[in-house]
Design brief:
- Two copies of one chain form a homodimer.
- Chain A has 34 helices and 31 strands.
- Chain A is of the alpha/beta class.
- In chain A, strands 12-22-21-14-15-16-17-13 form an eight-stranded mixed beta sheet. An eight-stranded parallel barrel of chain A has the order 24-25-26-27-28-29-30-31, surrounded by seven helices. A five-stranded antiparallel beta sheet of chain A has the order 1-2-5-3-4, with helices on both faces.
Amino acid sequence: MADKWIYAFGGGLTEGSAEMRELLGGKGANLAEMANLDIPVPPGFTITTTCCVDYLRSNEFPVGLWEGVKENMGRLEKAMGAQFGGGDNPLLVSVRSGGLHSMPGMMDTVLNLGLNHETVASLEKKVGNRRFTYDSYRRFINMFGNVVLDMEHSDFETQLTAMKTRRGAENDIDLSADDLAALVKDYEELVITKTGSAFPQDPYEQLRMAVEAVFKSWNNERAVTYRRLYNISNDSGTAVNVQCMVYGNMGDDCGTGVAFSRNPSTGEKALYGEILFNAQGEDVVAGIRTPQPISDLKERMPECFYEFEEICARLEDHYKDMQDMEFTIQNGKLFMLQTRNGKRTAAAAVRIAVEMVSEGLIEKRTAVRRVDADSLDQLLHPAIDVNGDSHILAQGLAASPGAAVGKVVFTANEAVAQAEAGEPVVLVRQETSPEDIMGMNVSQGILTARGGLTSHAAVVARQMGKCCVAGCSALDVRSNEKLFRANGKVVREGEWISLNGNTGDVILGQADLVQPTLAGDFATLMHWADEFRTLGVRANADTVVDSEAALKYGCEGFGLCRTEHMFFEEGRIDHVRAMILAENEKERREALANLLPFQRGDFIGIFNVMKERPVTIRLLDPPLHEFLPKTDEDMEDVAAILKIDVEAVRRATEFHKEQNPMLGHRGCRLVVTFPEICEMQARAIIEAACEVKKKGLNAFPEIMVPLTSGEREWKFNEEIVRRTAARVMEEQGITVRYLVGTMIELPRACLRAGEIAETAEFFSFGTNDLTQMTYGLSRDDAGRFLPDYIGKSLVSRDPFVAVDREGVGEMVEIGIERGRKSRDNLEVGICGEHGGEPSSVEFCHMVKMDYVSCAPYRAPIARLAAAQAAIEHGAYQRVEVH
Amino acid sequence: MADKWIYAFGGGLTEGSAEMRELLGGKGANLAEMANLDIPVPPGFTITTTCCVDYLRSNEFPVGLWEGVKENMGRLEKAMGAQFGGGDNPLLVSVRSGGLHSMPGMMDTVLNLGLNHETVASLEKKVGNRRFTYDSYRRFINMFGNVVLDMEHSDFETQLTAMKTRRGAENDIDLSADDLAALVKDYEELVITKTGSAFPQDPYEQLRMAVEAVFKSWNNERAVTYRRLYNISNDSGTAVNVQCMVYGNMGDDCGTGVAFSRNPSTGEKALYGEILFNAQGEDVVAGIRTPQPISDLKERMPECFYEFEEICARLEDHYKDMQDMEFTIQNGKLFMLQTRNGKRTAAAAVRIAVEMVSEGLIEKRTAVRRVDADSLDQLLHPAIDVNGDSHILAQGLAASPGAAVGKVVFTANEAVAQAEAGEPVVLVRQETSPEDIMGMNVSQGILTARGGLTSHAAVVARQMGKCCVAGCSALDVRSNEKLFRANGKVVREGEWISLNGNTGDVILGQADLVQPTLAGDFATLMHWADEFRTLGVRANADTVVDSEAALKYGCEGFGLCRTEHMFFEEGRIDHVRAMILAENEKERREALANLLPFQRGDFIGIFNVMKERPVTIRLLDPPLHEFLPKTDEDMEDVAAILKIDVEAVRRATEFHKEQNPMLGHRGCRLVVTFPEICEMQARAIIEAACEVKKKGLNAFPEIMVPLTSGEREWKFNEEIVRRTAARVMEEQGITVRYLVGTMIELPRACLRAGEIAETAEFFSFGTNDLTQMTYGLSRDDAGRFLPDYIGKSLVSRDPFVAVDREGVGEMVEIGIERGRKSRDNLEVGICGEHGGEPSSVEFCHMVKMDYVSCAPYRAPIARLAAAQAAIEHGAYQRVEVH
């Protein structure tokens, strides 16, 4: 018995359900589910994703598929009382892709399949609408030509435009039935010219070719790019949905639209959508015509509206989530074409999740899981200050919230080029298309002249968390001339504009920004997340200002305070340079003694804010040449300030140069050469702790040795810290609590973790450097070739963004296992930038770390991701070292 | 019951034996063993090494030690009929260190202990030799003052010289008994002046202080340096030997000497040694007086000579090895003071090992184990061409064989400084001392004006495998003036000289050199080694000349052929640059097409020499900027040659610059960006193999992908190679055998080895880079701080010299285990420079690699080390992939 390749839905036989998303794709599973719920869907069937995978492997239809297709077409003929490819009542179908993950605009669709010279005639006779019939046929030829026959859409457009010009028609709708019939002939000629063959007339041949084209489109470049961008596996394949056609373009009692059960931008609980009367669905999604709000349906066809409203409520109740639906009204009858969980902005996701809990629709744990942690980033960034003094150039649709301030660019390529050069850019387009995705991804925001709230630009921008103003019709975009005009003003490439994604304002110049607030639903959700999570969340922070941000964003301490950042400040850098340029230990100690009060003061400031929370302080890490002057002029300045010969400065600068500074004289290696640096820093920390203790504050420094490679080196450093601490406490007559531990950021440290943990009280995995060493990959240099790796799918994700679990992750696991084996209560955290990236946070939970540390403003992301990981993988007991 | 801290020997009670070297040290164990063999040794006792360790930890004598010392002193008093610290027949003892490993000149010795004002009088009365008595006493004060009281030896020397000047005496021997008695008084005053206390008169106090001083000397700087240099553990401690004094300086029927049972320089089977009549042992070792050949003993005291000869034979037969012995003749009676296995040159080691097998004294496996593999280096280097045209400046003793050509330096510090600057140097000294070790280590050779074949310079140079000419009395060395005079010629610092360690010639200028021969005993030993070893030995070699050397030194194939070395040759580099500067793939392919014939020709040449042996060829590895011009002038040249704008060259050079080139765009990463490079190289290799196959030669390339980090990247590269190979073979209609495999040199590759080995046919561990990545340590930059690590004992050995087993070694083990788990017959080798270093070769054997690869001239070292590892750890079956 062959595999079951096909699942029927509607018309009296439904074999699938919502649970079968992997097999039937999201669209197919939901069509089956709607049919099961007795919601009106045009009948059809779904060819499975496994069938697609099989086809892509063997390049031929698997055994039994084609027979199944014919059998199901027979069923549809019976259900509709129609005939595929002939008869008085010709059966027409749509063929659509639909994988496990929705990929808007990525995969291809063919409508009106089954039309040919014969059926077009019978259809005309049947519906009595010649214009509709030929419009359908010309659309079919266009889509089929484009999607299946690999022809250019623009070639068809050119002919359509030519026809309109010939007829003096402004819009498509102004073309008559005969015009369209003539256009069909033009299109058919075009097919012969471009492909060398006539347009296929056999409907089953059309169907076979369309199914194959959908299968193949899984691997088209846009689809691959999209999957790469959203980390979707290349192996799952797409299903194919073959469904009886219904028409929104058969007259004024017809229409087609899309709607959300709640507002996808704000989360407000209200039907939100758009309808185009007398139009086909593709017109909406493509953003070619600007549609009307769905409330217009209520006026024009109240029964349809109320039925639709009722179905929306039922679907939301059924799926327990906000729904994104497509529908068509054919001669007053409502058909649901699709429902799926709707994409939404982070703000909407938070509001919907929280409100659904209070509505009793979902539980807290579901609410916590429902918000994409990374998307919170949108809420943690500034917005345009509406009270600011700004020149509003034009207003469009507030398609995706937030703010964007950048220089105008007109092509995706230019956006990428500018962004690589470090320039913030705003991508301005007539309308966007899937080819623009890379450009959108690097832009601060997107501005389009055409397209509605569900246009490509809007949908993609919301998902990316980018600010987007769409359908700004006042704009006259002239990409070729690298400028746009708006209300009499000309804006050229490279000029600054600002977008307000919350209002739709397009602002000339760089607008003022206001900081986000973290109250309300956001605070509620964060509170729930904190209830669920096991992982602690700390901040990578260096200053008093950072400390305050850390507390505001819910950090429980510092995971990484980089002491060298303090070295660069004015009044200090000269002492640092004097220390480096010292001729002997005595001079070096003098310079360090000058630095001591600054460092001590820094720590007192931080302790005063962080109170009794742990503050992990990393001892000096960067190579010394980072502190030395680079230019001749700077060298002269330094020589003058330090009252030494400029040649001495030059020699020292030359001496400290390194071939591979990443692998050079840095981290605790500096201490092996200059133990007095470590002494000064340990002294500053402990003196600061003693100082605040005098005022009753029991600060808690965790002193961290960077770049440890093995036990002897570790113990050399550790002993200096402990000896210095003991001496300071004796001098002061005060005992303070502190830990001494180390960063684990070299593969060798992971291997030697057992021995290191004999005396190290905590480990903090420095996954930035650990990734560099494990991969042998310089973060500074990888930019030139890592894109080739991602482009050729040789790595799944940039390992500097998300922890490479297979390599770096295993090193971390080895380190934790060996460390904990020799010390039960070893505190383990991570302080690479991965600490604020959700999949890395999940990994940290899976390996049972005690905390992650990240930039303060990413802490809410980490908190939510940690809660999701705990719900997914179960909680555990954290180490208690305090 | 307390530990047993003391083991007696001689005088009727011997508690130790040769097996107890760890506990008693080499000297103590051998004294006990000699006593057990009824060989005349002065009786004494040995305080154990564990006692030293205990003392160094607690800083006090362990319980029971002092009681044991007194008890044993009582035993010695009884055995000698003498009294320690009094009586008519005062007992005097020597106190000497002696650890597990012999450390010449490193540890301290005190002779004549027990003398004080009282005993010096009774001794005078007893021996009736006032001069001898006071000479003994003044020597005792000098040594005790220097070693125990931490006074300067030179202060005593100054007084001795002053006394000689006062008395008009040329040599020490010219001083009268009264002179020496006066000198004793001077010395005693000096002690008070320098230490604030009188010289201790209580013999037990002297003994206690001396034992403590020996214990403490374990940690003196020279000892620590020596151990570091020779990789001796710091933890084993030294034993202390307390032994009754016998005297070689009591008259003309007295003498003292050292001798080897065979010639330690050539290996010739003949007694080899020196004697000083009427002298104390320290005079010989310190090289202060030039001694007479031992054959003189035969003339002056034939009975003693024959007894000594008989003892030598007995000891060699007993220890089955060449012996290095110290003896003293006191009034015609021979006493053996020490025997140990003698240090020898590599040439001697080989000859002795081979001859002892033919003498039936040892087995082949013992012979193979007896030669230090690293020392073979001495035999594999060039010697002075004695037929060359050379100006012989002077002749000294041929103290250590080989040749040295370098610039004259007069201090160890200057030697180190010059060597660091890349200059070859010859260290010229009046005589060397332990302080000079670092300088000797970096010099090409050592030349001394004083001292014999067993002087410090000679012993240390032989062990280091350095050429040494000693006792060149024609030299007038004036270090202060930075020059020496010899036979009317003045040679200044920085001038070139050459040393012939085989003849003792000192040659002006740079002498011609001849290559070593590898025949005779050397060939025999290598043949035996090959019988025992499991590991294959291949060559790191790039050219036809290298190929011939590889075969000469016994390599079984190439383990690493670096194709980029071929890129630098004239006629090629321009094409390489054109390739790098190409604006597009088409131009790049054109440049590569121009390179193809060169690469193909290279491989044909190598295959023709290497025949059917495996030739592992690494595809392009270095970052492209290594091929680009550096200076403005070079850039202009390149622009002119390639007929492009110089600005384009400058831009490209700028573009290719990297922050951390070691972690940059190199290895197979280049291929991901430019697959056509790999295609060209694979094509060149397979075309070459086809070409030679036409002439009946079945070459065997193993194509190696560098810097693989994971399976997808590996497969991307592998597929290009296999696809290209298949295409070439189809074009040529010829099938050739080849393997495709990869270097494993990133920690991640070790972790992902299982997946990589699914299709990789071999692994070659690139332990140079693997060390850099595992340690996060740049080989180019480590020179500035790694010495601090070695100095502070934070690493045992430079990990770039010997494989770091604990870290890098574990990564290798993980890689091998995972690789072999997924592919039974995975061929595994190593091609880092560790492949020619004995302890690393042992490691490779322990992890069951199939081969090591190293520079051709180091192959004999690898072969011998591999044999030793197989004997030590057992043989195993190698993978058969051919």
